[in-house]
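For reproducibility, we list the full input for the nicotinamide-adenine-dinucleotide complex.
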Amino acid sequence: MKNIMVTGGAGFIGSNFVRYMLGKYPDYRILVYDKMTYAGNPDNLLDVTAMYGADDPRFDFVKADICDANAVADAITRFSIDTIVNFAAETHVDRSIMDPDAFIQTDVYGTYVLLEAARRHGLERYHQISTDEVYGHIHGDHRSVETDAVAPRSPYAASKTSGDLMAVAYYVTYGLPVTISRGANNIGPYQYPEKVIPLFVTNAIDDIPLPVYGDGKQRRDYQYVLDHCEGIDVVLHRGQIGETYNIGTGGEMENLRMVEILLDELGKPPSLIRHVEDRPGHDRRYCLNVDKLKALGWEPRHSHEEAIRKTVRWYVDNEWWWRKIKSGEFKEYYKRLYGDRKVINPA
Ligand code: NAD
Ligand code: DAU
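The corresponding predicted structure, in tokenized form, follows.
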């Protein structure tokens, strides 16, 4: 594996993965293929583009849509691609509730376009980046294992599940060398501030209230993004074709505890917390069993608390990155989602 097309490589996890892979594998070439939606940001790759200039064969960039079969085929041929790692997606649950259309286009149809291109070009590997949301809300103290039934509950989760099922179908039907990884809630540098942690950190820095959905007792597995990238690397190099691997810490944390740590790291008061009307269909709990990936020699390096504190410090140190975003398209989005949202008293 030498020539990897990283779709969605200008987004949050994709850009961290690109940086990680270029640093770890000096003989690999990376093509970022990205449509540059609101979530695709050249600043996420600023250091990479500075280090690997236009003449450097190790890094290239194509601005295009994964739904465009001709553009995908051109890129595969032009850059002699042997592997696709598909991060490209619409990713925010609240946006999928407001406007599901783009989710169906990119996460379902776009995945099909990439799978078909991988098949026609006889690629060595197609890796699908998926999510723990495909398992739906997890009851009791169960931790999702890869063989559990899928039970998505939001338009986002349903579109990602469809992508997974299509990838499996291409493996079973055509023998395409497919692997799938299902990640938990990633946090770290370059995450668009619609997601809860960058939203809350950047609000708190400016003393803007933190809109906690419902009672705030939902449970998530907040994992540091580079732990996820290492897990994907392990699946790419040591994973078995046709298999799915969960990637998370294996633990879980209440949202209110996450907020407590975040405010403590910033030295800001709990009075910034506002409980607001809940997200429709909000999954109460995700929790992954990650033994299958651990059996390949991978271990997460950060606890939830370490990941949250490290992430908070990055946003404190990188206002140049997020202030630009929060003054653009984001303002309209924030008004639409939170403007008329009722403040509640969960007690
Ligand atoms: P993101 O929203 O930060 O970035 C998505 C990227 O995909 C952007 O660069 C965007 O421009 C690009 N993109 C969107 N539609 C495209 C299209 N049609 N063609 C080409 N490019 C397109 O996303 P993220 O949080 O980095 O998530 C990346 C992947 O990881 C997604 O597949 C997501 O479902 C999955 N995932 C995310 C998390 C998480 O916590 N963020 C957890 C598990 C899995
Ligand atoms: O679990 C993996 C998934 O994690 C990824 O597949 C998704 O792409 C990613 O967006 C994320 O989904 P969540 O819905 O869990 O993430 P989000 O950051 O939107 O919310 C995390 C938790 O915080 C969730 O319980 C909802 C809550 N929340 C979120 C926002 C934006 C709030 O209480 N208030 C908020 O304003």
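The mean pLDDT is 98. Residues 91-93, 131-133, 184-185, 195-196, 199, 211-213, 218, 220, 255, 279, 286 surround DAU (ligand 2) (CB under 6 Å). Both points were considered when choosing residues for closer inspection.
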